[in-house]
Amino acid sequence: MPYRTEGEHVMSINRRQFLKLAGVTTVAGIGGTAVFNGLRDNGPEAAQSSPDPRSLKGKRWGFVVDVSKLKSGEDYQKCIDACHSVHNVPDMRSLPEDIRKRQEVKWIWKDTYEHTFPTAPEDEYQNSELKEKNFFLFCNHCAQPACVRVCPTKATFRRKDGIVMQDMHRCIGCRFCMAACPFGARSFNWRDPRPFIRPEKENREYPTRMIGVVEKCTLCTERLAKGLKPACVEVSNGAIVFGDLEDPNSEVRKIIASKYTIRRKPELGTQPGIYYVIGGVEHAG
Amino acid sequence: MYDSGKIIAGLVIFVVLVTFPFISNMGKAGAKPKPSIDTPVINQMQVKQCVEPKEFMRAEHMQLLNNWRDSVVRNGDSIYVNKAGQSFYISLQNTCMNCHSNKKKFCDECHNYMAVKPYCWTCHIEPKESML
Amino acid sequence: MLDKALTGSRRYWTWIFILLAIIGVAFLAYLRQLNEGLGITGLSRDVSWGLYIGQFTFLVGVAASAVMLVIPYYLHDFKKFGKIVILGEFLAVSAVIMCVLFIFVDMGQPIRIMNVILYPTPNSVMFWDTVVLMGYLALNLVIGWTTLGAERNGVKPPAWVKPLIYLSIPWAVSIHTVTAFLYAGIPGRHFWLTAVMAARFLASAFAGGPALLVLLALLVRKYSKFDPGYEPIQALGKIITYAMFANVFLLGLEFFTAFYSNIPGHMQPFKYLYAGINGHAKLVPLMWTSGIFALASLGLLVFPGLRKNEKILAFACVILFISLWIDKGFGLVVGGFVPNMFETVTEYWPTLPEVIITAGVWAIGLLVLTVLYKVAVAVREETA
Predict the structure, then answer these.
(1) B41-75 pLDDT, tens per residue?
(2) Could you give the 3-state DSSP secondary structure of residue C187?
(3) What total of structural domains would you count in chain C?
(4) Can you give the residue ranges of every domain in chain B?
(5) Is A59 exposed, middle or buried (0-12, 13-18, 19+ CB in 10 A)?
(6) Which of A50, A137, C96, C102 could cross-link C56 (Cys pair, CB 3.0–4.6 Å)?
(7) Is A134 part of the contact surface with chain C (CB cutoff 8 Å)?
(8) CB contact under 8 A, C112 and A187
(9) Of the given ranges (A143-157, B104-118, C162-176), which has the lowest mean pLDDT?
């Protein structure tokens, strides 16, 4: 079909060209409108929100964990329960054990020295009491986090105060962060968590998560915003010390300066912010 | 035309299928939504004023919530100052639903009418509604 | 040209309906996964990626392999590939579509997939993988369709296709390099943390993809009037042989570094895959099958006397493809997660719903491939 026949000034267009034009125009119209709407800034400006004046301010929040202060299983469980109940972390103990182990969600838990520090294992000559002791594991809130590096949507990101935060609204559930984290700190919601949150333990002031997103310890940002310390710290009886690692006068810095502390897998360069006091169990304070 | 029987039959089926939602709902128009602000907290307020004026909230509450979400989760800012200079603690569960504790008679009224199902509530805990 | 896919023999339509049936069942399984969560798969907190991502990784390689036809034909004027370049390009289209689908079914919140576009994150390799895969899909669709359309009309393709074809060459290499980077930059998982990952990926892609292509070419010859030709298939056979040698050699290098260094973190994943740890040995039979098939296929391919026999070549391609499918589509992913970051072992094995959904994605890919090949073959038959 000729686009323009000789001698005629009428522009004829064949059916194929017309359909192509119509298709492109439709896509451009819908796409363009969508882009325009997406870019348009609507609603109140960001300048109208500000931090709570009670918030704790720091440049790099971290923990020092001194497990010599934890004597019994209950001491550990108190910290775990405090965190998990305040954040509505699901309790999956009603599931068969093999499924529970595979799908559990945990923000803080305990494990042996060997599993906490697998790249610095103790051998048969070193302090054998260390082998018996349990340590707390949580997110290390690294300064150079691998998880943040790989997240394709910035759903996990590092705040100015050093906390590696999780935006549950944005997470697409790709689990790249779980592959990247060298510390196994992250949990995924393999199923709907709601049935596993005990109604009597539910914290109605904090949301739950939903199926298909990743979650982990957030260093209790919602508590810090109100001037409170993280939940696990408060009930740990001094076993978990919270503070600003960049403040030389903070308690955490004082402990790190005076005692021998190690971090998990420091050779990987992620610069964890959780320090563990190492020593004989007899050492005081 | 060729195959006129098949074509006309096909057209009739197509028209019926496409207009079926309208035909089956004829005469069953939903009642205009009447969101209720009859809650204990609101009843105790002297001036019944939301975070922003009613007209603004009606049109833009989802945009406001999106901005709030980014303020708290991504920027760590948990205080919002509205156009009138009042401060609010940014929280869907603890601020919005504190006053609007009757989700079924408030939020759901318009949402159901518009067939909108926001999935905020899969994470944000709904208020427990006592008999009002 | 798409109308050519709407006419076919009884066998053609039976095949189409079988594929549609598989897709239907898989779709129901996927709805169940959407409803109940990814917990219905065999994945776990420790092994958080499995069959879906493994298949994605393997298929990116298959998609990239089209370049093994494009380079000889377009850059070096190897006219023998003239008739089958289109088969490679359409295989790439089908493979990339499968890749995208495998990512989609693996996501916890697929409804939010636009977040990857709305919040672009240049430091994330996954962002770049999305970009390059989409670009490669578009490239191959446009190039394939345009060149085929031109051939059908008996004219040369328009001039603007040439730069796109040249672009598709580095682009093909890039899609698989970027996919390798998903693994090769992850600290803490020593099975993956190797510079050789991208090289291994490319080598196995350039062996596995053309192997599949050989099998498809033989099928096309059997079931249609279009004969890709003995010579092109032999040329592919040589490419496959060299690429497979490179792949097996690189795997050997991995073994050396792991075991000569004697570093536990490096050795453990290999031990798990090929010998088992503490009685956990689910993958051992599979990995040995993969290894034996790899060596056997090389044994058949390296001797021209054997390779020139198309039946032997086809058999070698089958076991080679299976070997690489196991190694890249399964062993690679699981090996990165076992042992876990606490040096304990949580095993992984796909569940039935997971396998059904996987089969469904493969069926969609095969459907796309069938339709595209039907069009290409019909045009060939027309212009022959």
Answers:
(1) 888 888 888 898 889 998 989 999 999 999 999 99
(2) coil
(3) 1
(4) 4-122
(5) exposed
(6) C102
(7) no
(8) no
(9) B104-118
C268 in contact with A at a CB cutoff of 8 Å? Answer: no
* pLDDT score of A39: 65
Task: Give the integer Cα–Cα distance in Å for B12 and A32.
Answer: 35
Query: Could you give the CA distance from residue C233 to residue B87 in angstroms, rounded to a whole number?
Result: 74
Q: What is the mean pLDDT of residues A62-91?
A: 94
Q: How deeply is A37 buried, as exposed, middle or buried, from its count of CB atoms within 10 A (0-12, 13-18, 19+)?
A: exposed
DSSP bridge pairs for A240: A65
Residue of A nearest to B59 (CA): A43
The percent of residues in chain C predicted with pLDDT above 90, rounded, is: 91
B123 closest CB neighbour out of A48, A168, A225: A168
Confidence of residue A285 (pLDDT cuts 50, 70, 90): very low
Domain holding C333, by residue range, is 2-383
Confidence check: pLDDT of B132 > 50: no
C119 interaction partners in chain A (CB closer than 8 Å): 153-154, 170
Q: Backbone phi, then psi, for A156, in 5-degree steps?
A: -110, 135
Does A150 lie at the interface with C, CB-CB under 8 angstroms?
Answer: yes
Helix (H) or strand (E) segment spanning residue C15: helix C10-36
The predicted structure's pLDDT at residue C237: 96
Handedness of CA C240, C244, C245, C250 (dihedral sign): positive
Q: How many residues are listed for chain A in this entry?
A: 285
Smallest CA–CA distance, residue A109 to chain C, in Å, is 13
Q: pLDDT tens digit string along A9-31?
A: 556 778 888 888 999 999 888 88
Please report which confidence band the pLDDT of residue A32 belongs to, taking 50, 70 and 90 as the band edges. Answer: confident
Among A107, A97, A272, A79, smallest CA distance to A188 is for A107
Cβ-Cβ contacts under 8 Å, B94 against chain A: 205
Predicted local confidence at residue C369, as pLDDT: 96
B78 interface with A at CB cutoff 8 Å = yes
**Tokens linked to B31:** 């009642």
| Token digits of residue A61 | 């929040």
pLDDT value at position A284? Answer: 43
Distance from C199 to chain A by nearest Cα, in Å? 21
**By mean pLDDT, which of A46-50, A101-105, A236-240, B8-12 is the weakest?**
A46-50
Q: Tell me the three state secondary structure of residue A42.
A: coil
